[in-house]
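Before relying on records like the one below, remember that each one covers exactly one chain. Contacts with other chains, cofactors or solvent are not represented anywhere in the record.
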Amino acid sequence: MLLKAYTKLTKKSLQLLKRFYKQVMPTRFTASQSVEIAVPEQPIPIQHYLRQPQRLVNALVDPTRIQVLSEEVFRLKMRPLTFLSVSIQPRVDMRVWAESNGKINLRSVGSEILGFEYINQRFALNLQGHLSPYQLTSGTYLGGKADLEVQVDLPPPFVFTPTPILETAGNGLLKSVLLTIKQRLLHQLLVDYRRWVTAQTTVTGIGDNSEDLPINWGRLD
């Protein structure tokens, strides 16, 4: 009788330990988002506009949350996010650079969680994306994709939360982040592009056939 009870208790303990060690290992969350934008015809092709990484960053994120670290590296302070019952605020350093064909690349080069040191020490974020112009018979388009991955050792309250619940919540949170960025990009990028074209053509008087377009690196509204 005692042996049977001991065996049952041992099996239960092993199951709990197995579940515990499974949960203290890094949990991985992922999300992806694609985008396609029809670009209205303007006197200056959008490839020239895309030479300026900071304008694209301002189209992706509220400019008040951006700190310029260098010509290609920007620090983005995201809005607080809620994961189950925990509020976190990520800060991401992102490199954004343009290729000669107008393709824009972005890649995270650092990240941290503000105000939650336990998670910050056990947190890794990887963001990669691109945006490229391409031509169809119907006009010019921008196409791109972003992939976001987070690996984190969750704090003790989440140790016994079933993995499917954690993954659903985490993946959903990352998806909502990318969707918010996409919606801002769809609206803000073309607005800023039109504004930039107007400023360029007013200042320089450049027409459609210019090959060596000077760029006004003035204030980014």
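The domain at 24-204 is CATH 3.30.530.20 (Alpha-D-Glucose-1,6-Bisphosphate; Chain A, domain 4).
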